[in-house]
Amino acid sequence: MKHISILLIYICILISSCTKKNEIIIGTVELSNSKLLLTQAADSLDVPWDLQYDKTNNYIIFSEIKGNIKKLDLNDNSVQLITAIPSVFQQRTTGLLGMALYQPLQSEHYLFVSYTTKTDDKIYSNLYRYIYKDGTVKNPKLLLQIPGNTGHNGSRIIIGTDKKIYWATGDAAIDANAQDITKLNGKILRINLDGSIPKDNPTPNSYVYAWGFRNMQGLTQGENSIIYTSEHGDAVEDEVNLIQPLHNYGWPLIEGKNPPKKETDSTKAIVFTQPLQSWTPVIAPAGISYYGSTKIPEWRKSLLLTTLKSQSLRVLKLSEDGKAIIDEYTLFKDQLGRLRSVLTLPNGDIYFCTSNRDWNPQKGFPKPEDDRIYKLSLNEKAIGKIFTSIKTTSAPVVAELSGKNLYEAYCASCHKSDGKGIMGTFPSLEKSTTVNGDIKTLSQIILKGLKNQTIDGVKYDAQMPAFNFLKDEEATAIINYIRSNFKNQASTININQFKQTK
Ligand code: HEC
After folding, report:
1. Distance in angstroms (rounded) separating the CA atoms of residues 88 and 314
2. How far apart are CA 117 and CA 126, in angstroms?
3. Which residue's CA lies nearest to atom 5 of ligand 1?
4. What lines the ligand 1 site, CB under 6 Å?
5. Could you tell me if 58 and 415 are in contact, meaning their C-beta atoms sit under 8 angstroms apart?
6. Which of 464, 478, 493 to mutate to test the pocket of ligand 1 (most atoms within 8 A of CB)?
7. Is the peptide bond before 366 cis (omega within 30 degrees of 0)?
8. What is the atom index within ligand 1 of the atom nearest the CA of 479?
9. What is the distance in A from the centroid of ligand 1 to the CA of 438?
10. Pick from 120, 139, 341, 377: most CB atoms within 10 A?
11. What is the location of CATH 2.120.10.30 in the chain?
């Protein structure tokens, strides 16, 4: 016994001597030549949403969805509240979201923040500018306010190399916004630092820089000032896009690299820009950060992408000119939970955060001390648990045509693996009247999606997307799976019976 405790003390001293500044060692990521130490820099956070680096003070400034702006001092890894914004409206995915810290050499420093508010039953997305100095903020100024919704508020912000604000807005759950050039939703907006419209915008007197987006959750700028975004598709085709002025990225007329859903004369006339990469089944891509440092040679010229549904960090290796994705690697799959945001420091260290206390927790999460901010940095030797990065050769395919696999790929992110959903957000499919009921109604819900229902006395304001892309045999397998699981005991059907319900 005594020996064990001495050994434990010895190990503790050993570990604490390896970690600086209260970092907890989690393990090592082994790449082909480099080793990266994974440490935990902060815990017990509540849905950190955006991470920014204060290069003057060596702080990470981060937002928490309910309205806090906090700082993580990298000199000792202490966390302090900078300010709590009382007017933030937080429900489901709304709240205090994207931020951008701007620290020019000569003039005042600014922190730009995007958050939702609610006035007289109307939700808005707001772009505010604070004066920022050494971990404090003051004098908020509203630069722009646009319609918001309970979902699809986009909100990432960057300050481009041209000293303009780029604000990625969501379609506010109204598809048509994205193709309407007069609306500011579903767009990349280009804005002067004081909120006015830049004189050199591609359309005179308009903030609109690029259009045709659903709900972007990541925005970054790489070499040669190339701007990249990540975006949530509905039931299919999550995307990473390369943004060019006045290009149309297609939502809701096309998704991913597919042809237009409905070929009409007007859609034939539009030129759509395809994503660099798209994913079906969806991965829910979130924060994205360009990695240009030589510190981790294997990752130089990559996009680092955090994902929520697929609970992983992706490394998207870019071509030399940055205009194509040539390789994809997946790290930490299902091990740390939902990952929301990622930040690359000028010295090549990487910080990223979890989102395990948000509206859509995954199986086994949140852990008691979630949410956390993690750090990845180059290290000489391997310590602790070993993580490997797995090369994704092509979009993941649903290996086997079993109802269970298909349900996991397409339905479980919302209705959960056990079918119990989340009360008030995603209805339970357990002992469900609809699932056990008439086949035609059930099949129409799956094919066309559903919105604005009151189920068992509870109103659902989240929407179910349409799954009309499923093959007949896939839809049949899913229907049979949900009708004979989750305490449902309805008859199964064959593919011909399914076809008659279309
Ligand atoms: C993005 C989240 C999401 C995904 C993915 C999803 N659903 Fe849903 N589903 C919902 C929501 C939200 C509702 C309730 C909609 C409403 O009431 O307006 C719903 C409703 C339903 C209902 C009706 C429940 C009732 O009691 O009336 C069924 C059945 C259903 N979904 C089955 C499925 C199946 C099968 C899949 C996979 C093919 C699936 N859903 C995928 C979000 C989702």
Report:
1. 31
2. 7
3. 411
4. 410-411, 413-415, 426-427, 429, 432, 434-435, 442, 445-446, 450-453, 455, 460, 462-465, 467, 478, 482
5. no
6. 464
7. yes
8. 35
9. 16
10. 341
11. 18-392
Q: Which residue has the tokens 């925005």?
A: 219
As annotated, the residues of the chain forming the CATH 1.10.760.10 domain(s) are 403-499
Mutate which of 93, 414, 439, 470 for ligand 1 pocket (most atoms within 8 A of beta carbon): 414
Residue in 344, 177, 351 with CA at minimum distance from that of residue 252: 177
Residue 47 tokens, joined? 């849905």
Contacts of 359 by beta carbon, 8 Å cutoff, 6+ apart: 92, 93, 422, 425
- Residue 320 tokens read as 């030399």
Kindly give the distance from the C-alpha atom of residue 330 to the centroid of ligand 1, in angstroms, as a whole number.
28
Contact 365, 356 (CB under 8 A): yes
Which residue has the CA at smallest separation from atom 40 of ligand 1? 411
Q: pLDDT tens string for the chain (502 positions)?
A: 445 554 444 444 444 444 456 789 999 999 999 999 999 999 999 999 999 999 999 999 999 999 999 999 999 999 999 999 999 999 999 999 999 999 999 999 999 999 999 999 999 999 999 999 999 999 999 999 999 999 999 999 999 999 999 999 999 999 999 999 999 999 999 999 999 999 999 999 999 999 999 999 999 999 999 999 999 998 889 999 999 999 999 999 988 888 777 777 777 778 899 999 999 889 999 999 999 999 999 999 999 999 999 999 999 999 999 999 999 999 999 999 999 999 999 999 999 999 999 999 888 999 999 999 999 999 999 999 999 999 986 555 555 678 998 998 899 989 999 999 988 889 999 999 999 999 999 999 999 999 888 988 888 878 898 998 889 999 999 999 999 999 999 999 999 999 999 8
| CATH architecture designation of domain 403-499 | Orthogonal Bundle (1.10)
How far from chain centre, in Å, is Cα 387?
22
